[in-house]
Design a protein that fits this description.
Blueprint: E1 23-24, H1 26-34, E2 39-42, H2 46-51, E3 58-59, E4 75-78, H3 83-93, E5 103-106, H4 109-115, H5 130-151, H6 157-173, H7 177-183
Parallel strand pairs: 1-5, 2-3, 2-4, 4-5
Length: 195
């Protein structure tokens, strides 16, 4: 259950509250961030962060979240849809020596933030968003599988089947190997950690 957006203050919630009770709405996050009451940590990959992020947020990719020092103060984790920030919240809450009451996540992620009309800071000339790169790569492989199965050998249709199965597994699990692979490509390597 998420906190009510109008009458709950996650920073003063009980330390025993679970991760599902540590959500903050886009409107409340905007208000508290503008007042300097919270620090935003974006757990997406750097290439996603550069393509569009909340101004003043810090970038700590989920894979390194528990290995790197976090900024001080009450922290709100954000990602694209809320799935990765929830995973990050669980990982940080399970880390010894952490103060649970200082951790929250943006409910619905940046998708909810955008739907609420809140602004994103975008860098001009940034690489395409990672999800669009995944769509282009997956679509190209599916098309190649179909064409090769018609022009070269029928067995090539399994290339399309493999890509389709991978996309289904990524949707169910939240882990996309193709996205991780693309994020490591040279054109997606960016060093910025705060925007």
């Amino acid at each position: 259950m998420s906190l009510s957006t109008s009458n709950a203050n996650p920073a003063t919630s009980s330390a025993a509250a679970g991760p599902g009770e540590r959500s903050i709405s886009p409107a409340e996050l905007a208000e508290r961030h503008a007042a300097g009451e919270v620090t935003i940590v974006d757990v997406r990959e750097p290439v996603e962060f550069i393509a569009g992020h909340i101004a003043g947020s810090h970038n700590r990719p989920l894979g390194r979240l528990t290995d790197e020092a976090l900024p001080g103060g009450p922290i709100v984790l954000v990602c694209q849809s809320g799935r990765r920030s929830h995973q990050g919240l669980m990982a940080l809450l399970g880390r010894s020596g952490n103060e649970p009451a200082t951790l929250m996540q943006l409910e619905g992620g940046l998708e909810a933030w955008i739907r609420a009309g809140q602004p994103l800071r975008r860098r001009k000339g940034a690489p395409l968003p990672l999800m669009r790169q995944v769509q282009i790569a997956a679509g190209s492989l599916v098309l190649a599988g179909v064409l090769l199965s018609q022009l070269v050998a029928p067995g090539w249709v399994w290339l399309s089947g493999f890509v389709g199965a991978g996309l289904i597994a990524a949707g169910i699990s939240g882990f996309c190997g193709m996205a991780r692979l693309l994020a490591a490509m040279p054109w997606n390597r960016v060093a910025q950690t705060r925007g």
